[in-house]
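R.M. (postdoc): so does anyone remember the format we settled on? I'll just put the structure tokens first.
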């Protein structure tokens, strides 16, 4: 089954689509990327994910797997003998990684988006302060999880690295548009160093969106309607 053809349905700008692509690259699993057009949903996507109708979808042979974090776990289990293990080895460490991944999706990324959606300087400042507070929590989580190594997962990129690292393109685009550095050596030195190492990894570089291109895309997404 592991040898069946692999495809990823997604879009270049989606941080959630980036997750399975990084995971597959880390496992050295060849795959075909099926690009969705922004603003529309292909027949294949609707057929593959009829419940949520959203990307990403991993097609393994004729079997679809949906939801980015679930896909990453599926990749890790299906190709367990290829490349590094993406999930921590102990039940407790796996639970902690899943907790922070959920926090990033449900709390942190929403706060980051609120910077781009802010109306006026005061609202933007409040949104930036919120993200910086949450970054301090994640900085501590990195120190605890990494145990002095380069990544959340230790010596190699893993599940939580992928969960947070997939947002780095949007973080950098937000920094560019807001004119404010959100992850820097002064406030979050561990995260700053980790982000640089993550982005420079050979499994990540080919799928990390260009900051300027993503910023232009974000302007269109978050453009204020005319009064």
């Amino acid at each position: 089954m592991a040898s069946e053809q692999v495809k990823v349905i997604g879009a270049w700008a989606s941080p959630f689509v980036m997750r399975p692509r990084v995971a597959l690259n880390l496992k050295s699993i060849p795959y075909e990327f099926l690009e969705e057009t922004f603003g529309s949903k292909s027949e294949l996507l609707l057929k593959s994910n009829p419940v949520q109708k959203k990307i990403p979808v991993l097609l393994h042979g004729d079997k679809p797997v949906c939801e980015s974090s679930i896909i990453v776990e599926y990749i890790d289990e299906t190709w367990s003998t290829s490349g590094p293990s993406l999930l921590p080895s102990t039940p407790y460490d796996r639970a902690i990684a899943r907790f922070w991944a959920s926090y990033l999706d449900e709390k942190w990324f929403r706060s980051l988006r609120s910077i781009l959606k802010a109306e006026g300087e005061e609202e933007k400042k409040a949104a930036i302060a919120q993200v910086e507070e949450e970054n301090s929590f994640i900085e501590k989580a990195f120190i605890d999880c990494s145990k002095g190594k380069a990544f959340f997962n230790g010596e190699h990129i893993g599940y939580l690295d992928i969960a947070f690292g997939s947002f780095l393109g949007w973080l950098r685009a937000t920094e560019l548009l807001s004119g404010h550095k959100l992850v820097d050596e002064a406030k979050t030195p561990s995260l700053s160093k980790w982000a640089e190492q993550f982005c420079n990894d050979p499994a990540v570089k080919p799928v990390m969106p260009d900051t300027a291109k993503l910023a232009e895309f974000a302007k269109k997404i978050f453009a204020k309607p005319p009064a």
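R.M.: ...and that's the designed sequence above, right after the tokens. Also worth knowing: The chain has two domains: 6-78, 91-221. The first strand starts at residue 6 and ends at 10.
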